[in-house]
Design goal:
Layout (H helix, E strand, L loop, with lengths): L4 E3 L5 E3 L3 E2 L5 H14 L3 E3 L7 H11 L7 E6 L8 H13 L4 E6 L9 H13 L3 E7 L3 H11 L5 E5 L7 H10 L2 E5 L13 H10 L3 H11 L3 E2 L6 H8 L8 H8 L19
Parallel strand pairs: 3-4, 4-5, 5-6, 6-7, 7-8, 8-9, 9-10
Antiparallel strand pairs: 1-2
Helix pairs in contact: 1-2, 1-9, 2-3, 4-5, 7-8
The chain binds nicotinamide-adenine-dinucleotide.
The site of nicotinamide-adenine-dinucleotide (NAD) has 23 residues, from α9.
Length: about 280
Amino acid sequence: MTVPTVKLNSGYDIPQLGFGVFLVPPAEAEKAVSEALEIGYRHIDTAAIYKNEEGVGAAIAKSGIDRSELFITTKLWNDRQSGEQPHDAMRESLDKLGLDSVDLYLTHWPTPERDTYSNAWQKLIEIRDAGLAKSIGVSNHLPAHLDRIVEDTGVVPSINQIELHPAHQQQDVLDWAATSGTKIESWGPLGQGKYPLFENPAVAAAAETHGKTPAQVVIRWHLERGFIVFPKSVRKERMAENLDVFDFSLTAAEIDAINAIDPGDGSGRVSAHPLEVN
Ligand code: NAD
């Protein structure tokens, strides 16, 4: 099984399917990431606020897998965006991960009330230039935030990681990315189990047709739409299920039917709105 890669505007390749560790408790993170690496995942998505970077780092160290085969992402938390703080935060994350550099460093939320996201982006550029992050990007940024950081710095993010699943597709953010060369990562790709995606007739029908599970159909939809995706599960059998999506393809009609799940008015969102997080 080979996971396809996506070429970023930095020139680096990112594995299109990975493993996310949001809400994996610190004490369980090492075990979960060790199992994920054993099964074949090579791309791990963590964040300072997940408080499990040490566990991720311990699993990486014990795996014996060559660093060059791994793609590790972490994120700058909202209260470290101002002044020179992003530099300190990056060093702390690298210490916890036990790494010299990450493959991708993201600002976690724009937190517009703080008005520090453009400074944070400037600091991420410096962090990249210092060789501590191979690629840099943002998360939860809306077109107005993206326009601002590009206008202020001239640097286009490699990635925008946003809540994205069939019920919440954020077409305006996708359009910005398509015209700018930014790649999209889908967080909450399975709707965090909060939206009844698996029972949806379009998903259920495709699962039946292909002899796959509804979760596998939704992951396949992300991949075929060109999104980068890292579903989370601490159950080993589900980790394996979520990686076992390279032996089938959805038809254009199936993709259209799944695209149509989005009510189109934002009501399919399952988590916080970017303007409300500070
Ligand atoms: P997700 O959509 O991946 O849902 C995870 C839940 O889905 C699991 O807890 C489990 O209950 C269920 N699940 C997983 N595999 C399943 C399967 N095969 N069958 C049935 N149910 C299954 O949600 P998520 O964890 O929030 O998102 C994935 C990753 O995205 C996170 O771990 C994290 O790395 C990232 N993330 C980023 C942000 C951000 O603000 N940037 C926010 C949330 C998550």
